[in-house]
């Protein structure tokens, strides 16, 4: 039964929009225009707004627990990367050496005296993170880390991690991945954290070496709403503790509204909005429709409107957070629960693919 | 001058910007003319600290002189820290005739009975308010002057503003205040904010109010030329209405600067399109917090520009009307609209 639901709502390959009863016309118009753009530019129809996703479930991830712990405890910044040219997963060690040399050289630029190499030496390391990609087409995730000694440390002190970044592609659109020429590796999502000057150094090195380009990845309102719905859906398995949304309304001075809902109540609201069978607990993976997300958000906004006579649609959704993670409009994300890393990264990979200019 | 007084003086000088320090020292008026001349306010802070500590040591000041200086500083700059409002209720028969001296004595003695080793300083500022500074100690330690509690009692009103009070000491202070002002009880007024002047102005309604009138503008001429002036007239009328209702709800001109308002909502979810949720018995619990650099100004702008539908909902207009910024909203009688309810202390 889930399959027939999915086939009805899956977007067709030609550019005729499916006529269905949609509660909010703006969503229908926006993705219709997105399809129009794609076909006009002669792009493969592979990159379009997904209208349904698999409901997230906790995965037993076979990733090195250290790497997972690193991913979970920090807040990351997001960027998209165009496909990398002639990137070999086997040559990571030599890439790491080049990167270290590049960072050290850039840092020393402008200094007249040669600083002894060990003092502020930056050492980059690149490792493959096995087990993160789900689909067969996804290239393996690469973790880049830069260690360095703090300024006034003794020679015996170990080096500290000052910058880390992940190049990843989780469940990337298979048609798009196949449409790339042979030499290109597509790792569109770049998740990083660290000092701004190191980030720009790493980005410029990757751009020079692999002929690609970076850009900031902001999370659109739709993506934030997807995250709100997906995380709420997980409440059955792991307590989200609250669903907190931060809106900014354009008054003078700007008004910030923090709307935090009790987890059990918001879960019941989500259940009442879902079409199809509900309530048989965690069973097979079920699909979530964009319409359901839209009406979920609309219900929350209308409850707010009933009391305050303020329409939240007039403002911008800046941040969505639950105990499972938090996501911000300016492209920062924090995943607090390692079980849902894959689903969150899937959504982010898709955002990155959509935002890429190619 | 003992060590704790020195430390307090150093902290005061370090934390205060130099211009404010200069004005406060003049108001304090305890340094001799020679000492005042020797202090050069263009020097770096550490030099100033040393000079002032030496000057105070010369004059053999005690802790009470330094606390006097701190109190003058806080009275001049009350918009720091977090202030919480309380309201005295149930005055006894002689509450009106309590005079300042009586209040001082009773407050000090009652507080000392409740907690030993407290240091209390009371000062009447203009005719509006009484300021109290309390440094808490206990049977084993001397009063800690580095973490004082400040209390402001707005005269001619039942309101008391408190800052920097721990929850352990709260009942003691409230009891002493209630007793010495001859009331029977005190409750939380659910209004808090960073700027004391703002919350005080809000409660005392010391901002420009707009009162509803039947004819807000002079009656218009009857023979207006038609054509598309009609459209502008329609919009102008609606816009003028919105501005008027926004002003009636929140006030005119400069509004007191509140930073936030919190609503704890426990009302039922009602939506005709969503039958499952509407039939639920339990309320839909959520907490809504509005924050802005000037909350009332933002809300007035929302109402005037149409972001918020007018007439302004009583939930938002209660902020200036009742002088509160913390509300618990519940449904009352079946079918009744939700209204603000005061929580128990």
Automatic annotation (TrEMBL), chain B:
Subcellular location, principal: nucleus
Subcellular localization, as worded in the UniProt entry: Chromosome, Centromere; Nucleus
Record's keyword terms, sorted: Centromere, Chromosome, Nucleus
Entry annotated with the keyword Nucleus: yes
GO biological-process terms attached to the record: CENP-A containing chromatin assembly; chromosome segregation
PANTHER family: CENTROMERE PROTEIN N
Family of this protein: Belongs to the CENP-N/CHL4 family.
Protein's UniProt name: Centromere protein N
Organism lineage string: Eukaryota, Metazoa, Chordata, Craniata, Vertebrata
């Amino acid at each position: 039964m889930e399959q027939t639901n999915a086939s009805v709502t899956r977007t067709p390959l030609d550019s005729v929009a499916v006529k269905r009863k949609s509660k909010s016309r703006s969503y229908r118009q926006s993705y219709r225009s997105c399809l129009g753009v794609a076909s006009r530019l002669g792009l493969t129809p592979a990159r379009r707004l997904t209208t349904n996703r698999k409901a997230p479930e906790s995965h037993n991830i076979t990733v090195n627990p250290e790497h997972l712990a690193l991913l979970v405890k920090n807040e990351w910044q997001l960027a998209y990367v165009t496909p990398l040219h002639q990137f070999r997963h086997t040559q990571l060690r030599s890439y790491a050496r080049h990167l270290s040399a590049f960072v050290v050289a850039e840092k020393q630029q402008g200094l007249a005296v040669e600083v002894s190499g060990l003092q502020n030496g930056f050492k980059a390391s690149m490792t493959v993170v096995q087990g993160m990609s789900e689909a067969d087409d996804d290239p393996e995730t690469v973790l880049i880390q830069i260690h360095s000694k703090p300024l006034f440390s003794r020679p015996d002190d170990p080096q500290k991690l000052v910058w880390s970044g992940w190049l990843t592609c989780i469940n990337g659109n298979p048609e798009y991945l196949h449409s790339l020429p042979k030499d290109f590796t597509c790792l569109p999502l770049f998740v990083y954290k660290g000092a701004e000057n190191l980030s720009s150094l790493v980005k410029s090195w990757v751009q020079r070496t692999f002929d690609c380009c970076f850009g900031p990845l902001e999370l659109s309102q739709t993506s934030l709403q997807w995250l709100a719905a997906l995380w709420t859906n997980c409440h059955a398995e792991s307590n989200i503790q609250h669903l907190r949304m931060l809106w900014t309304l354009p008054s003078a001075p700007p008004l910030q509204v923090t709307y935090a809902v009790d987890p059990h109540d918001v879960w019941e609201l989500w259940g009442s909005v879902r079409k199809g069978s509900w309530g048989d607990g965690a069973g097979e993976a079920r699909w979530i429709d964009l319409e359901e997300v839209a009406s979920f958000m609309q219900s929350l906004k209308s409850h707010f409107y009933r009391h305050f006579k303020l329409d939240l649609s007039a403002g911008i959704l800046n941040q969505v957070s639950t105990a499972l993670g938090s996501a911000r409009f300016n492209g920062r994300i924090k995943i607090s629960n390692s079980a849902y890393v894959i689903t969150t990264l899937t959504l982010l990979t898709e955002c990155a693919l959509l935002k890429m200019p190619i | 001058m003992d060590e704790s007084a020195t430390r307090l003086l150093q902290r005061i000088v370090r934390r205060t910007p130099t211009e404010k320090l200069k004005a406060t020292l003049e108001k304090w008026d305890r340094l001799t003319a020679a000492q005042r001349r020797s202090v050069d306010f263009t020097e770096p802070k550490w030099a100033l600290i040393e000079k002032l500590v030496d000057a105070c040591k010369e004059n053999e000041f005690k802790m009470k002189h330094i606390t006097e200086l701190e109190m003058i500083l806080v009275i001049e700059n009350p918009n720091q820290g977090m202030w919480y409002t309380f309201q005295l209720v149930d005055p006894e028969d002689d509450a009106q005739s309590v005079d300042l001296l009586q209040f001082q004595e009773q407050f000090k003695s009652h507080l000392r009975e409740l907690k030993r080793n407290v240091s209390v300083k009371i000062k009447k500022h203009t005719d509006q308010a009484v300021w109290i500074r309390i440094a808490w100690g206990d049977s084993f330690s001397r009063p800690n002057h580095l973490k004082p509690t400040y209390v402001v009692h707005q005269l001619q009103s039942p309101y008391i503003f408190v800052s920097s009070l721990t929850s352990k000491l709260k009942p003691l202070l409230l009891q002493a205040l209630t007793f010495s002002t001859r009331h029977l009880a005190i409750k939380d007024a659910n209004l808090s904010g960073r700027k004391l002047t703002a919350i005080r102005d809000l409660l005392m309604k010391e901002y420009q109010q707009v009162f509803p009138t039947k004819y807000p503008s002079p009656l218009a001429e009857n023979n207006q030329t038609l054509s598309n002036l009609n459209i502008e007239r329609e919009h102008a009328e609606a816009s003028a209405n919105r501005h008027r209702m926004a002003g009636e709800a929140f006030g005119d001109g400069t509004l007191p600067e509140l930073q936030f308002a919190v609503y704890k909502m426990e009302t039922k979810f009602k939506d005709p399109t969503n039958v499952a949720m509407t039939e639920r018995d339990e309320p839909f619990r959520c907490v809504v917090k509005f924050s802005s650099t000037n909350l009332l100004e933002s809300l007035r702008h929302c109402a005037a520009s149409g972001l918020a539908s007018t007439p302004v909902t009583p939930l938002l207009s209660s902020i200036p009307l009742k002088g509160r910024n913390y509300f618990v909203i519940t449904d009352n009688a079946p079918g009744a609209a939700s209204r603000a309810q005061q929580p128990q202390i």
